[in-house]
Amino acid sequence: MAALLKKRALAEFSQVLQQEEQVKQVKKLRLTKKAVHQGYSSTDLELLKRASPTEALELLINLSEAVSSGLEDVETIYKILVDHCQKEREPSVRAKVISVIRQLLQSRAIQPQTILDDLSPLLKAETSHTVIAQYVDCLHTVGSNPQTGEKLQQKVLQLIKHCLIDSSHLVKSKCMEVISDLTPVADHYDASPMLRNVGDFSRHQDPRVRTAALLAMHKLHQRGLLLDVSLYKEVCEALNDDYEGVRIAALNLLKVLSQIHSEHLVTILNSQEKIRLADDAFAKVCHMINDLSMNVRVQAASLLGGMYKVSLNFLEQTLDKKLMSNLRRKRSAHERQRENFESGEWSTGQKWADDAPKETVNAENVNLIMSGACGAFVHGLEDEFLEVRSPALDSLCELALQFPNFASLSLDFLVDMFNDEIEDVRLKAIKCLTRISNHIILREDQLETVLGVLEDFSMDIREALHEMLGSCKLSTKTGLKSCVDSLLENLKRYPQDKRSIWRCLQKLGAQHPYLTLPLVPELLGIHPYFDLPEPDVEDPAYISILILVFNATFSCPTMMPLLEQHTLDHYSYLSDTLPSLIPKLKLPNHTESPPERVSSSRQSRSFLQEVLQRVSDADCKSSSVQQCILETAIRDLQRLSEIEPTFSAAANCASQYIQCQLLLTKILSNKNWLSPSTMVSFHGHSLKSSLDQLLHLSFCLNHQFLGLRYSEMARVRQLRLRALALQLVVVIRGSNVSALGLCESFLEQVEVLQNYLEDYHVNPDSFTTSVFRELDNLEDPKPGSVARVLQPLLLAHPCPSFQLQYGDEKDEVGLERITEAKATIHEPSSESDNPLKFTAGLVLAVPLDAHIENVENFHNVRLKIKYPDQQTHVVLPRLADFRPLGNHSYRLYTSVLLSHNVWSEACHVEVSLVMDINDQESGTGLRSNAKSTLGLKGEDYLITLCKPVNVYIAPKQVKKGI
């Protein structure tokens, strides 16, 4: 029996397997897409009359989706919707109908006047709060429509006033939004009734309505309506509201009123004294720093920085927690005598009014927090949330910039924020102190706290502190000495901060020449009797001291006789190696003065003009003579870029353009590329290398230079189009691979160039004009027909020469505007002879510190690593390692990860920075077979930013364990 059951089970199992295989053979994957209504007509809404609420909502949702794609019979659909809205009993369906009508209005399919006439009677008869809210939204759209006139907006406002009677908070809030957007604010309109109406709702029982009312008043102010000073009392009462949103909106209005009516006098609560409204508002905003809600404290701390019209005595109280006179206003002696005289009580006569009742203070009425502006910034800077401390720092800095006396008082509190536990707060405090550095002088006790931050692990903190120290003024030479010692200790602990420390010492020496003077013998180790050994000029610490001393010597000539001969010799070395950090000094016994370079820029500019003019005149000469002139111009421009940094980018741009022009001339002058045997010459080294070089240079020319004007950039782009046209013709005539992808890319480039020329109103050259005309005449632009059109055009229209717009003779910015994308690698240096050893197969991290200039998008920057076995890796650095420096400049501090197998001896690995824009260049979208035919690789479209540095490494074999 068991054997029989086993056989039956096996038989059934085998049958099931066969059935699954049969099902797999006939099963097909079917993808269904949601139906899209291409043309939603009125017939589709006929079902709306007899549909259930659920079905009606589904029909309306489909109609809402079809509005954006286009509708047929819009007026008929609109009438059906209005009729159905009158008959529909379900509120949710009526609300959806009004929403669809609003969409029709936004698409400008229906006139606003028509919708207003049809919806007005429906709105007055409506009872559902949700539907009324949708009506208000639709009226808001009607009033905001560009076709709506002033009379129509007045009708909308009248309907909105009627809706304000509704008891729903949602309807009232939406009505406030409509009033704030549609109320006329012109001078000939009297908006005070509407403003009073909105102000009445600031005391509504629902907090959401109160918030909407205050926000509406603020919106009216932003639109240009002058708020009356009578609102100040209501706004001050709103500061004590239980709802957080009301208090935040009241704070914004309080700042607005303090700016408009700053000199208006208001009476202090429970007192007869009057003060300026700006001061009273400032005190109330300061009081909100102690609010229980973090969002209110953040808003109050942010608003303090913009209240510039406050008096200085109120501003100084924000840094003092002490309360004056036991919370009571201190009266003058005349007022006290008058009160005693009016008391009328009997006395002993020994002392005037000795038994008069003293002023009593009710303990319930005393609020220790309600102390005006006392200690506001102290509370803000000591808040437990960094969201409060950060805006408090910003506001403190803004007010310190406006009031120099307040800046000196706030210095201690800013220095205390250097010890905050949050890195962003510490960084902001350092930057705030840097901004107000012109108004302060650091004392020695403050400097001790500041210099302690140099031990921070964060590079951003340390570099920001270096910038701050270079901007501040020190009070004593002892402080300067401790600052120099701390910077040298920082250099010893963090060598990567070398350049930042050098810039800091450069500014310190320039700002404190007479504090540096008594420290020179100690800093340079000058002994009055003994001749000490000469320091190493390559020592970064010694270079730091020299930078400080030389910059101080520039403003203190009496320091020069103190310097020894080897120090003066080191000056000559550093002035050549670090010209940006060392000033120009007149050395003793040095009669040769530096050559004047006043006319150098003018001569270089005229020389550049002569070279370009010579190239332009060579168009009418023979091919061999023209090539000789172009080669000479390239050499002249390359030499000019080396000796004149001002015009280096312009000279390099013109040089690359002329190189492309020379390559085009050489390729087109060779008749082999037109013969049927082009296949042989195409695979030859000469044509292939020339074409690759032309494509690469034209690619770099499009993306490597910034500041080119529209006409200059148009000429560069037309050169790129000419190179791509030549590439397409060569591929089609010289190979049998499919050129469909290459042809599509070329046509995309043609379209992009045409749009560019039209947008910037630039006239194309003769070749580009002919290409536009011939391609427009082609019915089917296939690769063969496109190549037959391009081939005679390339021969008939020579490449135009490059032209620069120089502007006026006195305007030297005409060429300085052109900048070139480049980079400088500071670390690692190529001077090390000691190989970096690591275990083969593992990873070696090499620190890289580079400065990148004139790069619009740093996301395109890559690390290029080339190993001795010709393996090349292009690596994307971490985006967090890029630190923006401004003006399209960045600092890249990252780690280069190197790994390889075992080497027999140590070798150099080349590390460089490149810019990868392959994804943005539509013309390089070649098919794989076309790329293999041309021999193109991905790295052919990388723009080199700097020369590679050599890293000496030695992968060692893995040591086996015992």
Describe the structure in your own words:
The protein is α+β, with helices and mostly antiparallel strands. It is 54% helix and 8% strand. It is built from 40 helices and 14 strands. Strands 6, 8, 9, 12, 13 and 14 form a six-stranded mixed beta sheet that branches. A hairpin with a 5-residue loop joins strand 10 and strand 11. Helix 22 packs parallel to helix 24 (477-493), helix 24 (477-493) runs antiparallel to helix 25 (498-511) and helix 34 (685-703) packs antiparallel against helix 35 (710-734). The radius of gyration is 40 Å and the shape is flat. Residues 1-39, 323-330, 363-370, 591-599, 678-684 and 922-936 have low confidence and may be disordered.
List keywords for this structure.
40 helices; four-stranded antiparallel β-sheet; disordered N terminus; six-stranded mixed β-sheet; alpha+beta; single chain; 962 residues
Give the SSE layout.
Blueprint: H1 2-26, H2 53-67, H3 74-87, H4 91-106, H5 112-125, H6 129-144, H7 150-163, H8 169-182, H9 192-200, H10 207-222, H11 231-238, H12 244-260, E1 265-267, E2 274-276, H13 277-287, H14 294-304, H15 312-317, H16 333-343, H17 376-381, H18 386-402, H19 404-409, H20 411-416, H21 423-435, H22 444-451, H23 459-471, H24 477-493, H25 498-511, H26 513-516, H27 520-524, H28 540-553, H29 565-577, H30 600-617, H31 623-643, H32 648-669, H33 678-682, H34 685-703, E3 705-706, H35 710-734, H36 740-759, H37 766-777, H38 783-796, H39 813-816, E4 819-820, E5 822-827, E6 836-839, E7 844-853, E8 861-866, E9 872-875, E10 882-884, E11 890-898, E12 907-916, H40 928-934, E13 942-944, E14 949-956
Helix pairs in contact: 2-4, 3-4, 4-6, 5-6, 5-7, 6-7, 6-8, 7-8, 8-10, 9-10, 10-12, 11-12, 12-13, 12-14, 14-18, 18-21, 21-23, 22-24, 23-25, 24-25, 24-28, 25-28, 30-31, 31-32, 32-34, 34-35, 35-36, 35-38, 37-38
